[in-house]
Amino acid sequence: DEVITYNVGGKKYAPKNYHANHKYGNMVTLYDALRTSLNTVSVKLLNTLDIDNVSHIIKTAAELPEDSDRVPPVLSLALGTAELSPIELAAAYSVFPRDGKTVHPVTVTKISDVNGEVYYDINREVNPKFDFLYPADKRESKQIIKPEISYELTQMMQGIFEEGGTAYWAKQRSGLTKTVYGKSGTTQDYKDGWFAGFSTSEVAVSWVGFDDNKTLLQASESNAAKIWTDYHSLVSYDLSSYIEVPRNMKTLDICTESGLKATDQCPKTIKFYFYIDGPIPETCYLHQKKDQDLILGGL
After folding, report:
1. Coil, helix or strand for 85?
2. β-strands 249-255, 192-198 pairing
3. Do residues 253 and 273 make contact, with C-beta atoms less than 8 angstroms apart?
4. What Å distances lie between residue 21 and 17, 24, 145, 177, 189, CA to CA?
5. Above 70 in pLDDT, residue 119?
6. pTM higher than 0.85, yes or no?
7. Which residues does residue 1 pair with via DSSP β-bridges, in sequence order?
8. Sequential DSSP letters for 209-245
């Protein structure tokens, strides 16, 4: 977690974290960086990736055309440079609880008259004159992220609601008790406050802002989060009690301080599922018995 100056098109770019009194220089896990919304780590991570590919994945998930300029392949994309509508963002977040598959949002599912004659049904392959409501090329989902990677990201978004996370206050105030996943955000100049996330069977997005793009004068992701958690506490109903874990994963006890596989000495741990063919954490080096303890134990 450090301030780095990047050279972007001949100009210097040095993203900082939101809180003015934030202390830099600490090593953090990606889990905690997402949980506390650290801009420095987000940009550093994107800088190691193929930015064009990241832009492509976002466009595909949000149902945007490939030639759209609303998701520019630039470093600031890590901080929300893309301009999406709430329904586009909801479509994009649907990828995570759907094993990495896209979904096309549908508004109209059935049209019939007073006599019961059905003119359009989303489940019918052919609906003369109404097929434009759900085009054939939108009916098949695209696998844009491996199910196992999608589930790892889903687990990370649960940390937002833990103590110290950006949505912990909103969850506590709303009295929300069920398991939910999400991410908060504020765009540049405080023009938008966002919260996007999902429960076990529903994706929802809340936005706070002005239609004419005026500034809100203050960060409003906490307001958006409060609206979101209120909705999930008072209105939303889950059809399932959990999101299914992909088969090719193994569960480990992880040290919350180091982000590595916990030892018996680690004071606080969480369970986390990892893709068995992906990186598996090494054993925590912060909490191991010292050689002196072992010697005394032997004596």
Report:
1. coil
2. unpaired
3. no
4. 9, 9, 37, 31, 19
5. yes
6. yes
7. none
8. E-TT----SS--HHHHHHHHHHHHHHT---S-SSPPP
